[in-house]
Amino acid sequence: MSNKVVNFNRRTFLKSATSSLLLPALPSIATSAVNASSNGIGLAEKGQVKRLCCLFFGMGVSLPPKDHVAHKDWQWFPHEYGKDYSFSKSNIALEPFKQQLSFLSGLSHPRTRDIFAHSTGGYFLSGADPLTPAGNSISADQLHAMYAGSQTRYPYITMGSEGGLGDFRRPNTMSYAGSGQPIPSIGSPREVFNELFGVPSGDKESIRQAFGRDRSILDAILPDLKRLNHAISNDDKSKLEQYVSAVRSLETRVEKAEEWLDVPKPHVDEKQFILDVDPIQDGPTQFIDSMYQLIHTAFLTDSTRTVAYQKVKESPGGLANRFPEAIGLPNHHDMSHGFNKEGGYENWGTYDAYLTERFAGFLKQMAETADPYAEGSLLDNTIVLYGSTTSTVHNPRNYPLIVAGGRNLGLSHGAHHHFAESIPMSNLLLTLLQQLGTPVDSFSDSTGTLSHILA
């Protein structure tokens, strides 16, 4: 099989809402990834690849009450429970994937139900107690990456429309290390591509020397931090421990990067992506679809098996809050508060449908791509979690949630499952982690697993 780079017209990805991501299987990309792993690092054995993709959107969804004229058409959740449910206009784009996804209603994180709603996004994948000294705990994506990341160049990729960390109350990321420290998100298609497939400047020896300098700096810092630990208050010790954990995490990343220095990255032609796109001036469609396309390519090349993408942060500020304006609607935050105005629920539902269409395009792309490392499609071997930490009007209960894919990982779909409020969302996260093979018996405040979505 040839290793030449595959090119195709980028307009293929943007023709329509649900077919905007019709990426072919690109066997040459997958083959180059396998060939590059001939030394054994990252070489995936057939049938052993298990992936996790976590997708977040903030500020909830349209949920008109039963007596409202918009209730029938613009209710985000299906009206019926079980397998005999129908899609509303908010989610009709997902109808072709009914047997590959499950709706889940009623779940939420009990420990964040009473906090400021705009702060809940950072707890989507952790369910942590905000009152703990660290403020957060390890997120499910990072726990999976601890066990699955050793076989890929990147243990995880954290993406977000805003990029960076944000602030403590309104984070731009949903990925948290074991110390509770936030992990910065990569904020644009160009940055994601450069991280995954960009070629470092300089020869190998100069790069290796740079790694050595980085390690020397880290080695010099740690003894000083240990000495400082004996001369500060207990409160400051807690903060210092978090900093030390961050330094050790950086040290691990340096070691990981050096380990892969002699393994060439997959040859992926950047012309097949739209990388330099302004989501406001050019419109959010190209921006969001390009991020989804890069996730697909990261999985296809086995560059990583864990991705977290915060499409819309839980905040009235930020870039993504303006996405609806680019398609003729009020900004996202105003829509969520303007539900009781004339056409308010309809506007909100229209934007829900827009976000769902982008998600449906990603599922289509994943479902139509044969997995180079396992039987079935990429979607069959990837668990996709899609949701928000607020339902309507910033209510941090009854999260809108969809779980898709994972057919070869023991998941069963085709139904809308409703859960009592006493069941924490951590039960869902624990279920997904176990199906991915992560050796955990509990996660956060979990009380058990959800058999409803298991085959």
From TrEMBL:
Signal sequence annotation: 1-36
Claim: Signal is one of the keywords in the record: yes
UniProt keyword annotations, A-Z: Signal
PROSITE patterns: TAT (PS51318)
Protein name: DUF1552 domain-containing protein
Organism expressing this protein natively: Paraglaciecola algarum
Taxonomic lineage from the root: Bacteria, Pseudomonadati, Pseudomonadota, Gammaproteobacteria, Alteromonadales
